[in-house]
Amino acid sequence: MLWATDPFKEVERMRREMDRVFSRIPFFGTSEYEFPLVNLYDNKNDLILAAEIPGVPKENISINFSDGNLTVAGKRELPKYGKSELLRREQPEGEFEKTIRIPVRINSAEIKARFEDGILTVTLPKSQEAKPKQISIEA
Questions:
Q1: Rounded to two decimals, what is the model's pTM?
Q2: How many structural domains comprise the chain?
Q3: What is the mean pLDDT of the chain?
Q4: What is the pLDDT of residues 40-67, one digit of tens each?
């Protein structure tokens, strides 16, 4: 006997089941983006990286600059609510690491970082060679 089935309904059912399973694993419930979210800005003298890292104390964050790469790493722990069962996960939890390739030469001895209201701001001063130069035209 053949059953008339809608293959799209079956695919949708499987997708829901996979979402349910993976939403319980750290970071799988947030596959739309990588944590932390970052913006990289350029002005004449510096590059400025702004990273959203809410809910993480600064003691749990490390920053490393090596070979033109800036790495932000840390650990985010969410509060526990007794023996309650997690039904939906949108907030990432656990260890994280993100490496950003810095497109210009940086004076690494002058890099500064501050962390306020869940935003990590890293100021990366450009080396003299990377700064824009006005070139005069000779006669």
A1: 0.69
A2: 1
A3: 85
A4: 999 989 999 999 999 999 999 999 999 9
Question: What string of DSSP letters covers 7-39?
Answer: HHHHHHHHHHHHHHHHTTSTTGGGTTSPSSEEE
For residue 70, tell me if it sits in a domain.
yes
pLDDT reported for residue 78: 85
Tokens, residue 57? 């104390």
Q: Which residue has the tokens 């829901």?
A: 16
Which residues are 48's β-sheet partners? 41, 123
- State how far the Cα of 58 lies from the Cα of 54, in Å rounded to an integer: 10
Residue 106 inside a domain? The answer is yes
**Cβ neighbours, 10 Å, residue 104:** 14
Q: Where are the alpha helices (DSSP H) in the chain?
A: 7-22
Separation CA 138–CA 83 (nearest Å):
77
**Residue 29 confidence class, pLDDT cut points 50, 70, 90:** very low
Structural domain includes residue 27? no
> Does the residue 86 lie in any domain?
no
Assign residue 51 the CATH number of its domain.
2.60.40.790
